[in-house]
Amino acid sequence: MAYSDKTKQVFADEIVGIKDKGLYKDKRFICSQQGASIKVEFPEGAPQAEVLNFCANNYLGLSNHPDVIAAAHEGLDSRGYGMSSVRFICGTQDIHRTLQDMLSEYLGTEDCLLFPSCMDANAGVFEAVLGQEDVIIADRLIHASLVDGIRLCSAEYDTFKHMNMKHLEKKLQLHQDKRTRLVVTDGVFSMDGDLFPLDEAVALCEKYDAMILVDDSHASGFIGKTGRGVAEHFGVLGKIDIITTTLGKALGGASGGCVAGRKELVELCRQKARPYLFSNSLSPVITATSIKVIELVTKNTERRDKLEWNANYFREKITEAGLNIRSGDTPIVPVMLFNAKLANDMARDMYAEGIYVIGFFFPVVPNGQARIRVQLSAAHTKEHIDKCVAAFKKIGEKYGILGLDKKGIIDKYGL
Questions:
Q1: Does 249 participate in catalysis according to the annotation?
Q2: pTM of the complete model
Q3: Domain 32-61+302-413 classified CATH 3.60.40.10?
Q4: I want to staple 91 with a disulfide (CB 3.0 to 4.6 A). Which of 40, 83, 159, 385 is the partner?
């Protein structure tokens, strides 16, 4: 047998090593709808516990909204469960076209193309649009899915320092000999919650005849005055050449993504993007439900306004409690702990207090940047947030980190 006892032991020892370091990720199961309050089995085999969820991408609280669920039932009844085909064969329904048109208008673009996920959109867009004569110039902290998509493309690849516009300008000057220059960035960087200065980048692209691609997955639906993303926040709506984003976070929380942008670029994706050509279509249930979601988020701004208040309130109170957080204006609030075992241990203790959060450490974030990433939702009440802050304060006091800065925590626990 190829998988010998000796080989098996190699991998078993590695797992033991992870456990010995206190970094083992126990299995956990949500046993309810995804909402502000959820029922969780953790660890596996333990009795279910009802806890407050502060680590979901359910920014607008739409994952279990009754209107969204009703739309899913209606979509299932009217259009069926699955397409059993890719888009270009017999996998496109009229509701796919409707959703694409709605997303295009919502994002301020000329056209839009649905993909099974934003990861698929990012995997397909670069190879479809660029070639060996072109260059991609990317922020050094772009999402892993963008990195993977870029690897599939034959264009030259270069980077600029995180959100450093002077360095970006130097790289644009350096690559003036290329046929096309494409600047690539996240709109909101998901680990730190920082907003990319899109207005400055667009001005540079106009100056140096470059295009720009923004993955706005952690912004679509709630960043900007009407939730249309980072482009709206910085006043450059309609000036972004390519936007990739997801339906799997604020916009319903299921799955699906899109490439939206200049009509010629979207058409090239329709003709050439491999995930579009070789992956099954987005389920009719999700497509129909996403139409309802876009209707809800364009009707008024109540949810994004509530989310903004929640995020500001949590940031204020968690800072007063003495925790070390990344500053910012988004509902992604990293509580910085720097030590991986400390982050894992604190997350487990928070669960015992009825708060569901997760420790993030290498390889999800760089070594020495361990944290608990808190994500606020419009579904959270003030009482929910107060309970979360109180738990952080209690557990932070247990580990003696309240009031400590980065150096203080590292001196106490190491990296």
A1: yes
A2: 0.94
A3: no
A4: 83
